[in-house]
Amino acid sequence: MDNSLNIMIVSDDEALMSQLMTIAETKADRVIGVKSKDAVREMNRDIVHIVIFVDTDSDTSVEIVQMLKVINQNALILFIANESDFSLLRNTTRAGVDEFYVFPEESGLFSSRFPNTVKSYAAKKAASEESKTLSFGRGRGKIISFYSGKGGSGCSLLSSTFAQTMKLESSAEVILIDLNGQYGGVETLLSIESNRSLADLMPVIDELNENHIRNVSQTQEHSQMEVLISPCDAEVLETLNDEFIARLLRTCRRTFDYVVVDLPSTINELVVTAMEESDKIYYVLTPDTPSLKILKQYEELCERLGLLLSSRMEIALNKLSKDYEVKQKDLKNVLRYPVVASIRQDTKGLQPFINQGIPVRKLAKERKMIPFAKDVRKFAREVAKQ
Ligand SMILES: Nc1ncnc2c1ncn2[C@@H]1O[C@H](COP(=O)(O)OP(=O)(O)OP(=O)(O)O)[C@@H](O)[C@H]1O
Ligand SMILES: [Mg+2]
Protein backbone atom coordinates (compact mmCIF):
# COMPACT_ATOMS: atom_id res chain seq x y z
CA MET A 1 0.00 0.00 0.00
CA ASP A 2 1.18 3.43 -0.82
CA ASN A 3 1.93 5.23 2.38
CA SER A 4 3.64 8.22 0.95
CA LEU A 5 1.95 11.55 1.35
CA ASN A 6 1.32 14.24 -1.19
CA ILE A 7 1.55 17.76 0.09
CA MET A 8 0.31 20.81 -1.78
CA ILE A 9 1.30 24.32 -0.82
CA VAL A 10 -1.00 27.06 -2.03
CA SER A 11 0.52 30.52 -1.94
CA ASP A 12 0.56 33.58 -4.12
CA ASP A 13 3.53 34.91 -2.18
CA GLU A 14 6.80 33.56 -3.50
CA ALA A 15 8.91 34.13 -0.43
CA LEU A 16 6.42 32.37 1.80
CA MET A 17 6.12 29.60 -0.74
CA SER A 18 9.80 28.84 -0.64
CA GLN A 19 9.87 29.01 3.15
CA LEU A 20 7.01 26.50 3.36
CA MET A 21 8.54 24.32 0.68
CA THR A 22 11.67 23.96 2.75
CA ILE A 23 9.66 22.85 5.75
CA ALA A 24 7.39 20.48 3.83
CA GLU A 25 10.10 18.84 1.79
CA THR A 26 11.74 17.39 4.86
CA LYS A 27 8.57 15.43 5.59
CA ALA A 28 7.25 14.22 2.27
CA ASP A 29 8.64 13.08 -1.06
CA ARG A 30 6.01 14.74 -3.11
CA VAL A 31 5.44 18.40 -2.49
CA ILE A 32 3.96 20.71 -5.08
CA GLY A 33 3.55 24.45 -4.90
CA VAL A 34 0.74 26.25 -6.72
CA LYS A 35 -0.86 29.65 -6.92
CA SER A 36 -4.33 29.95 -5.43
CA LYS A 37 -6.02 30.14 -8.84
CA ASP A 38 -4.60 26.73 -9.73
CA ALA A 39 -5.32 25.01 -6.42
CA VAL A 40 -8.63 23.43 -7.37
CA ARG A 41 -7.25 22.14 -10.63
CA GLU A 42 -4.25 20.52 -8.98
CA MET A 43 -6.41 19.02 -6.26
CA ASN A 44 -8.42 17.32 -8.98
CA ARG A 45 -5.34 16.09 -10.76
CA ASP A 46 -3.90 13.97 -8.04
CA ILE A 47 -4.81 12.87 -4.54
CA VAL A 48 -3.48 15.52 -2.19
CA HIS A 49 -3.31 14.55 1.47
CA ILE A 50 -2.13 17.69 3.16
CA VAL A 51 -2.76 21.22 1.96
CA ILE A 52 -0.89 24.19 3.37
CA PHE A 53 -2.98 27.16 2.34
CA VAL A 54 -1.77 30.74 2.56
CA ASP A 55 -4.56 33.32 2.73
CA THR A 56 -5.07 35.10 -0.58
CA ASP A 57 -5.31 38.85 -0.97
CA SER A 58 -8.64 38.67 -2.69
CA ASP A 59 -11.12 37.14 -0.23
CA THR A 60 -11.22 33.90 -2.15
CA SER A 61 -9.65 31.67 0.48
CA VAL A 62 -12.79 30.36 2.14
CA GLU A 63 -14.35 29.49 -1.16
CA ILE A 64 -11.25 27.68 -2.42
CA VAL A 65 -10.84 25.75 0.82
CA GLN A 66 -14.45 24.61 0.55
CA MET A 67 -13.84 23.36 -2.96
CA LEU A 68 -10.68 21.53 -1.94
CA LYS A 69 -12.61 19.82 0.82
CA VAL A 70 -15.30 18.72 -1.63
CA ILE A 71 -12.68 17.16 -3.84
CA ASN A 72 -11.02 15.29 -0.99
CA GLN A 73 -12.84 15.42 2.30
CA ASN A 74 -10.03 13.54 4.00
CA ALA A 75 -7.42 16.14 3.15
CA LEU A 76 -5.84 17.87 6.10
CA ILE A 77 -5.88 21.62 5.61
CA LEU A 78 -3.46 23.90 7.41
CA PHE A 79 -4.32 27.54 6.96
CA ILE A 80 -1.88 30.41 7.20
CA ALA A 81 -3.26 33.90 7.68
CA ASN A 82 -1.22 37.07 7.70
CA GLU A 83 -3.14 38.72 10.49
CA SER A 84 -5.20 37.42 13.31
CA ASP A 85 -8.75 37.82 12.18
CA PHE A 86 -11.46 36.14 14.14
CA SER A 87 -14.08 36.01 11.42
CA LEU A 88 -11.57 34.51 9.01
CA LEU A 89 -10.72 31.90 11.61
CA ARG A 90 -14.37 31.07 12.05
CA ASN A 91 -15.17 30.96 8.34
CA THR A 92 -12.17 28.88 7.37
CA THR A 93 -12.80 26.44 10.21
CA ARG A 94 -16.33 26.06 8.99
CA ALA A 95 -15.02 25.46 5.48
CA GLY A 96 -12.94 22.57 6.80
CA VAL A 97 -9.60 23.98 7.89
CA ASP A 98 -7.95 21.79 10.52
CA GLU A 99 -5.25 24.10 11.86
CA PHE A 100 -4.96 27.87 11.72
CA TYR A 101 -1.73 29.85 12.02
CA VAL A 102 -0.91 33.52 11.83
CA PHE A 103 2.37 34.33 10.11
CA PRO A 104 4.97 35.60 10.75
CA GLU A 105 4.26 35.43 14.52
CA GLU A 106 3.47 31.74 14.54
CA SER A 107 5.90 30.54 11.89
CA GLY A 108 8.10 29.00 14.59
CA LEU A 109 5.14 27.21 16.08
CA PHE A 110 4.15 25.97 12.63
CA SER A 111 7.56 24.48 11.85
CA SER A 112 7.84 22.81 15.22
CA ARG A 113 4.39 21.25 15.06
CA PHE A 114 4.49 20.30 11.40
CA PRO A 115 6.44 17.00 11.75
CA ASN A 116 3.96 15.72 14.31
CA THR A 117 0.98 16.84 12.29
CA VAL A 118 2.27 14.87 9.31
CA LYS A 119 3.07 11.85 11.42
CA SER A 120 -0.35 11.63 13.01
CA TYR A 121 -2.07 12.16 9.67
CA ALA A 122 -0.01 9.35 8.12
CA ALA A 123 -0.93 7.05 11.01
CA LYS A 124 -4.62 7.84 10.63
CA LYS A 125 -4.44 7.29 6.90
CA ALA A 126 -2.71 3.91 7.29
CA ALA A 127 -5.30 2.77 9.84
CA SER A 128 -8.24 3.70 7.64
CA GLU A 129 -6.66 2.01 4.64
CA GLU A 130 -6.18 -1.19 6.61
CA SER A 131 -9.76 -1.32 7.75
CA LYS A 132 -11.02 -0.67 4.27
CA THR A 133 -9.04 -3.57 2.76
CA LEU A 134 -8.64 -2.58 -0.82
CA SER A 135 -11.98 -0.91 -1.15
CA PHE A 136 -10.34 2.19 -2.50
CA GLY A 137 -11.90 1.59 -5.87
CA ARG A 138 -10.86 3.67 -8.77
CA GLY A 139 -8.40 6.44 -8.32
CA ARG A 140 -8.54 9.67 -10.14
CA GLY A 141 -8.83 9.24 -13.86
CA LYS A 142 -6.35 10.66 -16.33
CA ILE A 143 -7.17 13.33 -18.86
CA ILE A 144 -5.36 12.64 -22.09
CA SER A 145 -5.62 15.18 -24.91
CA PHE A 146 -4.67 14.75 -28.52
CA TYR A 147 -3.65 17.89 -30.30
CA SER A 148 -1.92 19.01 -33.47
CA GLY A 149 -1.40 22.53 -34.70
CA LYS A 150 -1.67 21.19 -38.21
CA GLY A 151 -5.07 20.03 -39.40
CA GLY A 152 -5.37 16.57 -40.89
CA SER A 153 -2.50 15.10 -38.86
CA GLY A 154 -4.72 12.33 -37.56
CA CYS A 155 -5.87 13.63 -34.16
CA SER A 156 -9.42 12.41 -34.45
CA LEU A 157 -8.52 9.02 -35.83
CA LEU A 158 -5.75 8.52 -33.33
CA SER A 159 -7.66 9.67 -30.28
CA SER A 160 -10.69 7.57 -31.12
CA THR A 161 -8.65 4.45 -31.88
CA PHE A 162 -6.60 5.02 -28.74
CA ALA A 163 -9.78 5.25 -26.66
CA GLN A 164 -11.26 2.12 -28.24
CA THR A 165 -8.05 0.22 -27.59
CA MET A 166 -7.89 1.30 -23.96
CA LYS A 167 -11.46 0.23 -23.40
CA LEU A 168 -11.16 -3.10 -25.18
CA GLU A 169 -7.86 -4.18 -23.74
CA SER A 170 -8.36 -3.27 -20.12
CA SER A 171 -11.07 -3.03 -17.55
CA ALA A 172 -10.72 0.73 -17.51
CA GLU A 173 -13.71 3.02 -17.94
CA VAL A 174 -13.12 5.25 -20.94
CA ILE A 175 -14.83 8.33 -22.31
CA LEU A 176 -13.93 10.04 -25.57
CA ILE A 177 -14.73 13.74 -25.79
CA ASP A 178 -14.77 15.51 -29.13
CA LEU A 179 -14.14 19.24 -28.90
CA ASN A 180 -13.84 19.90 -32.63
CA GLY A 181 -17.14 21.62 -33.24
CA GLN A 182 -17.49 20.58 -36.82
CA TYR A 183 -18.56 17.66 -38.96
CA GLY A 184 -16.01 15.05 -39.84
CA GLY A 185 -14.71 14.36 -36.38
CA VAL A 186 -15.25 11.48 -34.09
CA GLU A 187 -18.95 11.05 -34.90
CA THR A 188 -18.14 10.36 -38.55
CA LEU A 189 -15.37 7.91 -37.72
CA LEU A 190 -17.68 5.99 -35.42
CA SER A 191 -20.91 6.52 -37.40
CA ILE A 192 -22.63 8.06 -34.44
CA GLU A 193 -25.86 9.76 -35.28
CA SER A 194 -27.21 11.70 -32.43
CA ASN A 195 -28.80 15.00 -31.75
CA ARG A 196 -27.26 15.10 -28.31
CA SER A 197 -23.96 16.79 -27.78
CA LEU A 198 -21.92 17.97 -24.86
CA ALA A 199 -23.60 21.37 -25.21
CA ASP A 200 -26.70 19.72 -23.72
CA LEU A 201 -24.86 19.66 -20.42
CA MET A 202 -24.88 23.45 -20.31
CA PRO A 203 -28.05 23.79 -18.18
CA VAL A 204 -26.79 21.40 -15.51
CA ILE A 205 -23.15 22.41 -15.47
CA ASP A 206 -23.28 23.79 -11.92
CA GLU A 207 -24.41 20.47 -10.51
CA LEU A 208 -22.89 18.20 -13.13
CA ASN A 209 -22.64 14.55 -12.15
CA GLU A 210 -22.02 11.18 -13.73
CA ASN A 211 -25.67 10.60 -14.61
CA HIS A 212 -25.91 13.82 -16.54
CA ILE A 213 -22.89 12.82 -18.56
CA ARG A 214 -24.11 9.30 -19.25
CA ASN A 215 -27.46 10.68 -20.37
CA VAL A 216 -25.84 12.75 -23.05
CA SER A 217 -22.99 10.46 -24.06
CA GLN A 218 -23.35 7.59 -26.51
CA THR A 219 -22.09 4.13 -25.76
CA GLN A 220 -20.06 2.94 -28.72
CA GLU A 221 -21.58 -0.41 -29.59
CA HIS A 222 -18.37 -2.43 -30.09
CA SER A 223 -15.96 -1.18 -27.51
CA GLN A 224 -18.60 0.06 -25.06
CA MET A 225 -16.67 3.23 -24.46
CA GLU A 226 -18.67 6.39 -23.87
CA VAL A 227 -18.49 9.15 -26.46
CA LEU A 228 -19.42 12.78 -25.98
CA ILE A 229 -19.71 14.47 -29.31
CA SER A 230 -19.23 18.15 -29.88
CA PRO A 231 -22.01 20.37 -31.12
CA CYS A 232 -21.64 20.43 -34.90
CA ASP A 233 -22.34 24.10 -34.89
CA ALA A 234 -19.14 26.01 -34.19
CA GLU A 235 -21.21 28.88 -32.85
CA VAL A 236 -22.76 26.70 -30.18
CA LEU A 237 -19.33 25.46 -29.23
CA GLU A 238 -18.20 29.04 -28.81
CA THR A 239 -20.86 29.64 -26.19
CA LEU A 240 -19.19 27.08 -23.97
CA ASN A 241 -16.67 28.85 -21.80
CA ASP A 242 -13.56 27.70 -20.02
CA GLU A 243 -15.47 27.18 -16.78
CA PHE A 244 -17.76 24.73 -18.57
CA ILE A 245 -14.89 22.72 -20.00
CA ALA A 246 -13.04 22.64 -16.68
CA ARG A 247 -16.10 21.34 -14.87
CA LEU A 248 -16.89 18.81 -17.55
CA LEU A 249 -13.38 17.40 -17.52
CA ARG A 250 -13.15 17.32 -13.74
CA THR A 251 -16.43 15.48 -13.41
CA CYS A 252 -15.37 13.00 -16.08
CA ARG A 253 -12.10 12.48 -14.26
CA ARG A 254 -13.96 11.33 -11.18
CA THR A 255 -16.02 8.81 -13.11
CA PHE A 256 -13.72 7.47 -15.79
CA ASP A 257 -10.21 6.08 -15.69
CA TYR A 258 -9.30 7.63 -19.01
CA VAL A 259 -10.80 10.80 -20.38
CA VAL A 260 -9.57 11.04 -23.97
CA VAL A 261 -10.01 14.44 -25.59
CA ASP A 262 -9.85 15.16 -29.32
CA LEU A 263 -8.86 18.82 -29.71
CA PRO A 264 -9.19 21.03 -32.77
CA SER A 265 -6.12 22.70 -34.28
CA THR A 266 -7.34 26.21 -33.63
CA ILE A 267 -6.31 27.53 -30.26
CA ASN A 268 -8.97 29.29 -28.26
CA GLU A 269 -9.85 29.72 -24.61
CA LEU A 270 -11.63 26.41 -24.56
CA VAL A 271 -8.71 24.49 -26.02
CA VAL A 272 -6.24 26.15 -23.66
CA THR A 273 -8.40 25.21 -20.68
CA ALA A 274 -8.60 21.61 -21.83
CA MET A 275 -4.82 21.59 -22.17
CA GLU A 276 -4.39 23.03 -18.69
CA GLU A 277 -6.62 20.36 -17.22
CA SER A 278 -4.84 17.56 -19.06
CA ASP A 279 -2.39 15.20 -17.46
CA LYS A 280 -0.95 14.40 -20.83
CA ILE A 281 -1.03 16.18 -24.17
CA TYR A 282 -0.11 13.97 -27.07
CA TYR A 283 0.95 16.18 -29.91
CA VAL A 284 0.26 14.37 -33.17
CA LEU A 285 3.14 15.10 -35.48
CA THR A 286 3.57 14.00 -39.06
CA PRO A 287 7.19 13.83 -40.14
CA ASP A 288 7.50 16.76 -42.51
CA THR A 289 9.01 20.22 -42.32
CA PRO A 290 5.77 22.25 -42.25
CA SER A 291 4.52 20.19 -39.30
CA LEU A 292 7.74 20.78 -37.42
CA LYS A 293 7.46 24.50 -38.01
CA ILE A 294 3.92 24.51 -36.68
CA LEU A 295 5.02 22.56 -33.62
CA LYS A 296 7.65 25.20 -32.95
CA GLN A 297 5.04 27.96 -33.24
CA TYR A 298 2.81 26.05 -30.86
CA GLU A 299 5.61 25.82 -28.30
CA GLU A 300 6.20 29.54 -28.54
CA LEU A 301 2.53 30.30 -28.18
CA CYS A 302 2.29 28.14 -25.07
CA GLU A 303 5.22 29.95 -23.59
CA ARG A 304 3.43 33.25 -24.16
CA LEU A 305 0.22 31.91 -22.69
CA GLY A 306 2.08 30.60 -19.67
CA LEU A 307 1.00 27.06 -20.44
CA LEU A 308 3.53 24.71 -18.95
CA LEU A 309 4.19 21.86 -21.32
CA SER A 310 7.41 20.35 -20.08
CA SER A 311 5.90 17.83 -17.71
CA ARG A 312 2.97 16.75 -19.81
CA MET A 313 3.59 17.02 -23.51
CA GLU A 314 4.71 14.02 -25.51
CA ILE A 315 4.84 13.41 -29.21
CA ALA A 316 2.91 10.81 -31.16
CA LEU A 317 4.44 10.48 -34.60
CA ASN A 318 1.85 9.62 -37.21
CA LYS A 319 1.88 8.69 -40.88
CA LEU A 320 5.40 7.34 -40.83
CA SER A 321 6.50 5.75 -44.06
CA LYS A 322 9.66 4.34 -45.52
CA ASP A 323 10.52 7.60 -47.20
CA TYR A 324 10.76 9.17 -43.80
CA GLU A 325 12.66 6.51 -41.95
CA VAL A 326 15.98 8.30 -41.91
CA LYS A 327 14.21 11.44 -40.90
CA GLN A 328 12.59 9.76 -37.92
CA LYS A 329 15.95 9.38 -36.24
CA ASP A 330 16.75 13.01 -36.99
CA LEU A 331 13.38 14.01 -35.64
CA LYS A 332 14.09 12.55 -32.25
CA ASN A 333 17.15 14.78 -32.09
CA VAL A 334 15.31 18.01 -32.81
CA LEU A 335 12.26 17.37 -30.67
CA ARG A 336 12.24 18.75 -27.16
CA TYR A 337 9.60 16.31 -26.00
CA PRO A 338 9.74 12.52 -25.76
CA VAL A 339 8.28 10.46 -28.58
CA VAL A 340 5.77 8.00 -27.11
CA ALA A 341 4.31 6.56 -30.25
CA SER A 342 5.36 5.83 -33.81
CA ILE A 343 2.43 5.07 -36.03
CA ARG A 344 2.83 3.95 -39.59
CA GLN A 345 1.15 5.42 -42.61
CA ASP A 346 -1.51 2.82 -43.38
CA THR A 347 -3.76 4.23 -46.06
CA LYS A 348 -4.64 0.83 -47.49
CA GLY A 349 -5.51 -0.72 -44.14
CA LEU A 350 -7.54 2.25 -42.98
CA GLN A 351 -9.48 2.85 -46.18
CA PRO A 352 -12.38 0.43 -45.58
CA PHE A 353 -12.82 1.66 -42.01
CA ILE A 354 -12.81 5.34 -42.93
CA ASN A 355 -15.07 4.85 -45.93
CA GLN A 356 -17.67 2.88 -44.04
CA GLY A 357 -17.36 4.84 -40.83
CA ILE A 358 -16.62 1.80 -38.73
CA PRO A 359 -14.31 1.86 -35.72
CA VAL A 360 -10.82 0.49 -36.26
CA ARG A 361 -11.11 -1.70 -33.16
CA LYS A 362 -14.13 -3.85 -32.41
CA LEU A 363 -12.99 -6.79 -30.30
CA ALA A 364 -10.59 -7.30 -27.45
CA LYS A 365 -8.89 -10.10 -29.36
CA GLU A 366 -8.97 -9.07 -32.95
CA ARG A 367 -7.99 -11.81 -35.38
CA LYS A 368 -6.55 -9.64 -38.08
CA MET A 369 -5.38 -6.22 -37.16
CA ILE A 370 -4.26 -3.57 -39.60
CA PRO A 371 -0.81 -2.03 -39.02
CA PHE A 372 -2.34 1.22 -37.78
CA ALA A 373 -4.31 -0.62 -35.08
CA LYS A 374 -1.22 -2.57 -34.03
CA ASP A 375 0.81 0.59 -33.62
CA VAL A 376 -1.93 2.25 -31.61
CA ARG A 377 -2.16 -0.83 -29.41
CA LYS A 378 1.53 -0.62 -28.66
CA PHE A 379 1.08 3.05 -27.78
CA ALA A 380 -1.94 2.37 -25.55
CA ARG A 381 -0.14 -0.40 -23.70
CA GLU A 382 2.74 1.92 -23.02
CA VAL A 383 0.35 4.52 -21.60
CA ALA A 384 -1.55 1.95 -19.53
CA LYS A 385 1.69 0.99 -17.80
CA GLN A 386 2.26 4.54 -16.52
N1 LIG B 1 -1.47 6.53 -39.96
C1 LIG B 1 -2.25 6.92 -40.96
N2 LIG B 1 -2.14 6.33 -42.17
C2 LIG B 1 -2.92 6.71 -43.19
N3 LIG B 1 -3.86 7.68 -43.12
C3 LIG B 1 -4.03 8.29 -41.95
C4 LIG B 1 -3.24 7.95 -40.82
N4 LIG B 1 -3.63 8.74 -39.78
C5 LIG B 1 -4.61 9.54 -40.27
N5 LIG B 1 -4.86 9.27 -41.57
C6 LIG B 1 -5.84 9.94 -42.43
O1 LIG B 1 -5.62 11.33 -42.36
C7 LIG B 1 -6.86 12.03 -42.49
C8 LIG B 1 -7.01 13.00 -41.36
O2 LIG B 1 -7.22 12.30 -40.15
P1 LIG B 1 -8.04 12.92 -38.96
O3 LIG B 1 -9.36 13.38 -39.40
O4 LIG B 1 -7.97 11.95 -37.84
O5 LIG B 1 -7.09 14.16 -38.65
P2 LIG B 1 -7.37 15.41 -37.71
O6 LIG B 1 -6.04 15.83 -37.22
O7 LIG B 1 -8.40 15.10 -36.73
O8 LIG B 1 -7.91 16.44 -38.76
P3 LIG B 1 -8.82 17.76 -38.57
O9 LIG B 1 -7.84 18.87 -38.60
O10 LIG B 1 -9.73 17.75 -39.73
O11 LIG B 1 -9.51 17.62 -37.25
C9 LIG B 1 -7.94 10.98 -42.51
O12 LIG B 1 -8.36 10.76 -43.81
C10 LIG B 1 -7.27 9.76 -41.96
O13 LIG B 1 -7.82 8.60 -42.46
MG1 LIG C 1 -10.21 16.07 -36.16
Automatic annotation (TrEMBL):
SUPFAM superfamilies: P-loop containing nucleoside triphosphate hydrolases. InterPro entries: AAA_dom (IPR025669), P-loop_NTPase (IPR027417), ParA/MinD_ATPase (IPR050625). This is CpaE family protein. Signal peptide: none annotated. Transmembrane segments: none annotated. Residues 142-297 form the AAA domain. It comes from the Bacteria.
